[in-house]
Design a protein that fits this description.
The complex is a heterodimer of chains A (232) and B (182). Chain A has seven helices and eight strands; from the N terminus they run ααααααββββββαββ. Chain A is of the alpha+beta class and 232 residues long. A four-stranded antiparallel beta sheet of chain A has the order 1-2-3-6, covered by helices on one side. In chain A, strands 5-4-7-8 form a four-stranded antiparallel beta sheet, with no helix packed on it. In chain A, helix 1 packs across helix 3 and helix 2 crosses helix 3. Chain B has ten helices and no strands. Classes of the chains: A alpha+beta (232), B mainly alpha (182).
Chain lengths: 232, 182
């Protein structure tokens, strides 16, 4: 029974879950399996992929432009209306942490060469689930970014990779973060040149980094640093 | 499932995960026609389909970072979100099939060979395999997937006892999977 019936039963349950046919106790059980049983989770994905092809014959229908406008207004309400300084309150939360980090960086000798003048920006990248946190300090005097992990890590056999982009620009790799709680990375020229909103993000990738130039693993989160400038 | 453009859509999802609004706009332009068709098929009313599609893309924006973890191919990931969102709205309950489930889903290490096979060669076969089933059973699977029908509703529609309906549909699913794996 375990060798013949069980796989079929599991697969049928996965299909019923994907179709939305399960209720009550059975649904709760399926959700529990989804979080704990890799084979079940895989079976659900497989069924979602099989079933999705039932829509293959549906010809695309252009939605009215108003939908896109409403969507972008909903997701990015502050993009045009609020100037960057209106987001300053965000900074208070990280400022205490960043001061501590700065003290740490200076005292640990990471900032040892006498710095040229240039602003310093701090931000925190936090995953939606809160299981991953990184504090970032962007040093415009040297165009380096310092990152410190305060929660979470790459899965075993994987590494972290840091990404960045300016507003409306494609994200590029800043560098790899193969190990350790902190890392210092020199920013590539196009990122060092960003003025205005600088977005930083962290993903997990195979050893050696993403082979595609874009993240291929989970992106833990991103943060927008407004008002970035190379002048003090 | 179209496989050309797959890498492009995958790259747009990855850039979206990094908070790129331009990539997200490109992703919308490249995929909204298909997802709108899916929402329309499920909800039939344009206004309802528009709302469902907007909600779908809000979920895509918020969950793009988890796309790789789910192990889907890019279009099936998007279609699954659109279908589930539309079905939720059809049933007017927003709890059971939410995409939030993905955050509690075990990560898949990337597209397995089996999934790649499903994505590429099996995809075209589902229509063919559905055709091999009796018309009633085909209609039942389609009713569940595209109209969100429950076992209760299906058993009433086909005028069979609830347990018979369950047995029926489960056998049909096994037959379907076997046909697609051939």
């Amino acid at each position: 029974m375990t060798t013949e019936q069980a796989p079929d039963q599991m697969d049928v349950k996965a299909a019923e879950y994907a179709l939305g046919l399960l209720t009550g106790e059975e649904l709760a059980e399926a959700k529990r399996l989804l979080a704990t049983d890799r084979a079940f989770s895989q079976a659900v994905t497989d069924w979602e992929m099989r079933l999705a092809s039932m829509t293959d014959d549906l010809a695309p229908v252009a939605p009215p432009p108003a939908v896109k406008q409403a969507l972008f207004a909903e997701l990015f309400p502050t993009a045009e209306r609020k100037p960057w300084w209106a987001k300053l309150w965000l900074w208070q939360g990280v400022s205490a942490l960043s001061v501590l980090l700065l003290v740490f960086l200076l005292s640990s000798g990471l900032g040892s060469p006498p710095p040229e003048s240039g602003p310093l920006y701090t931000a925190e990248i936090v995953s939606e689930a809160g299981d991953f946190r990184v504090v970032a300090v962007v040093d415009k005097s040297t165009n380096e970014v310092f990152l410190t992990r305060t929660a979470g890590a790459a899965p075993e056999g994987r590494i972290l990779q840091v990404w960045a982009h300016g507003e409306g620009e494609p994200a590029t790799s800043v560098g790899l973060w193969p190990e350790g709680d902190t890392v210092r990375i020199a920013m590539p020229q196009e990122i060092a040149a960003v003025e205005g909103i600088l977005t930083l993000g962290v993903s997990e990738e195979p050893v050696g980094g993403s082979p595609t130039g874009s993240p291929t693993g989970r992106v833990f989160g991103t943060v927008d640093i407004p008002g970035v400038s190379s002048r003090l | 499932m179209k496989t050309d453009g797959r890498d492009e859509i995958e790259a747009l999802i990855a850039q979206t995960a990094l908070g790129s609004q331009t990539a997200f706009a490109d992703l919308y332009d490249a995929t909204s026609g298909k997802l709108f068709a899916v929402c329309l098929r499920v909800l039939t009313e344009r206004a309802a389909a528009e709302d469902a599609m907007q909600e779908t893309y809000v979920k895509v924006w918020k969950n793009a970072g988890r796309y790789q973890v789910t192990g889907h191919s890019p279009m099936t990931w998007l279609i699954t979100i659109a279908r589930n969102t539309a079905i939720d709205r059809l049933r007017a309950r927003h709890v059971d099939h939410d995409l939030a489930d993905y955050s509690e889903r075990l990560p898949a290490p990337g597209l397995s060979p089996e999934q790649a096979a499903i994505a590429h060669s099996e995809a075209k076969r589902i229509t063919q395999c559905l055709d091999e089933l009796d018309a009633d059973r085909r209609a039942a699977i389609s009713g569940a997937y595209l109209q969100g029908q429950s076992y209760q509703e299906l058993s009433e529609q086909f005028d069979v006892p609830l347990n018979t309906m369950r047995t029926w549909l489960r056998r049909s699913l096994i037959a379907l999977r076997e046909c697609m794996a051939r």
